[in-house]
Every structure is written in C-alpha cells, then in structure tokens.
Design goal:
By secondary structure, this protein is an alpha/beta fold. The protein has a domain of 177 residues: Rossmann fold (3-Layer(aba) Sandwich), CATH 3.40.50. The protein has ten helices and eleven strands. It has a six-stranded mixed sheet with strand order 7-8-9-4-10-11, sandwiched between helices. The protein has a five-stranded antiparallel sheet with strand order 2-3-1-5-6. The radius of gyration is 19 Å and the shape is globular. The C terminus is likely disordered.
C-alpha cells in the first residue's frame, strides 16, 4: 500500500515581477516563494492503477517528482508498505520506477545500451539484465529499433524505451508522468497495455494524464489536484458520481468544489 500524506513543496522565486501575469495572480505565490504543492494526500493499494488529474500547473509533476525522491518535499511523508521512503532515498530508488515528463535518453547510445546502463546502476547482473530486456522488448514492442542509436528515434520509440529503462529493475511501484503524451494511437495503446500488464501482476501504478478515457479504461482510483491541493481522492465510481457518470463534468466539479470535509472515500486539504 502507498500512502502519501500532506506533501508540500515551495520554490524560491528570484524576481516575482518577471513571472507571467497568470503566475503573478496565482494565489500560491507568497512573496518570493511559489508554493507549487501545498497539501496533497492520497492512497493507492497493491495492484491498483491511480490516475492523477489536474489542470496545467496544478502541481501534478511536482507531486510525482517528490514521490520518486527526485525532489525533497518541505513536509509530508510517502509510505510504501509502511516504510517511509523519503527518509531512505536509496531504498526508494530500488523500490520505485519513475518516468519523468522528458525521456532524457542518451542519444549516442542505442536503446539497449540506455536500458543496460540503468540496469547496472541498480546492480543487476548481465544475465538478469539480458532476460529482462528481452521481456520488456516483447511487452513494449521494442525489437525493431532497440539496437539503433536513440537519437534517431521517433517520439513513440523514445517514450517506450524510457519506460523500459524506468522499470528494468522490476520496481514495487511505477510512477509515470503523462506516459502517452505526444504518442500516436498505436504507440499509446502499447503503453496502456503495458500498464494493464503491470496491474495484472499486482504492481501499483500512479500516472498523470489529461486523457480521461485512459482513466476510465485503466484506473480504480482517481486523485484530482488543483492549485497544489488534493481536491478529490476516491474510487473511479466515486469520481463518476460527482456528475452522473460524465468524467469531464466530474473533473470540473472536483476542481471547482472547496475542500472542507473528509470522509471515507475523499481526502481533502485546505484551499
């Protein structure tokens, strides 16, 4: 079970007057600090897929980067099977597979070499690495380009390779930041099928997306973040119930409501 409790993160702004007009009007800007995430809490059970939703700039990516230990939160906790991974980043990186919003492949290396490099960082043997790459190549349809230099890859090839690299060590939790962004229909479906496979094997997945059909297809739980606060945390059915089954209207309802109470299926923070 994954428990995220009251995560918060602020960033120093050197010159607030140089921010865009929209950013200057954001209520999270306090003096020289921008409070990107103010109060985010949610849970995800083993084998569940959780969809993280929110408008652009809501704090989704910052939240995911804190879960992966790429960013250190100012406050809050992240528990995986009751272990606080934030207090032990080395354990966290062995436990978590994280795909950031940018693939960041080494262009002069082949896809295989990119994946092997990360396997070495995780201390995997050559035999286990080779076996695992073969498995991931089958699942993500990598065979046709795996041994080409990655600077020749299309967006879809890069994304699928980056996903393989993120999960080469068979993590207990997979975190994906908009994994289908910019992909064509076929590449996106391959990624969604891969997420479904993780779910079937009992690996929990937390992924952010703007595509509500992906949430409807894959997720048991939904979390909505707006202006750095978790406005909704509940089951997919609870989420649909906000607007008589319409996901788009449910999303708008979630970000428009003022969090004021907490009950069994909702975790809400201060606005």
């Amino acid at each position: 079970m994954i428990e995220i409790k009251q995560l918060a993160k602020k960033f120093k702004v050197e010159n607030p007057k140089k921010l865009s007009e929209q950013a200057q009007k954001d209520p999270r800007l306090k003096g020289r600090f921008f409070h990107s995430v103010k109060d985010v809490s949610f849970t995800c059970q083993t084998g569940q897929v959780l969809g993280l939703l929110g408008p652009n700039g809501a704090g989704k990516t910052t939240t995911l980067r804190m879960l992966s230990t790429a960013l250190t939160p100012d406050s809050g906790s992240v528990l995986i099977d009751s272990q606080d991974v934030l207090s032990n980043p080395v354990l966290a990186r062995k436990t978590i597979g994280f795909l950031s919003g940018t693939t960041g492949l080494y262009g002069r290396l082949t896809g295989r070499e990119n994946i092997q490099y990360f396997a070495q960082l995780h201390g995997m043997s050559k035999h286990n690495t080779s076996t695992r790459i073969q498995e991931l190549a089958d699942l993500l349809e990598l065979h046709s380009f795996l041994d080409r230099r990655s600077d020749t890859y299309s967006t879809g090839m890069k994304q699928k390779t980056a996903i393989a690299r993120a999960v080469i060590h068979s993590p207990k939790l997979v975190i994906l930041d908009e994994p289908t962004s910019g992909l064509d229909i076929m590449a996106a479906q391959t990624v969604l099928d891969f997420i479904r496979g993780l779910k079937e094997r009992g690996t929990p997945v937390i992924f952010s997306t703007h595509h509500l059909e992906e949430v409807n297809e894959l997720c048991e739980r939904v979390v909505v973040i707006d202006q750095g606060v978790s406005q909704f945390d509940g089951t997919l059915d609870d989420f649909k119930g906000l607007a008589n089954g319409s996901l788009s209207r449910a999303f708008l309802t979630a970000i428009q409501q003022q969090p004021a109470s907490q009950h069994d299926s909702h975790t809400q923070g201060e606005g």
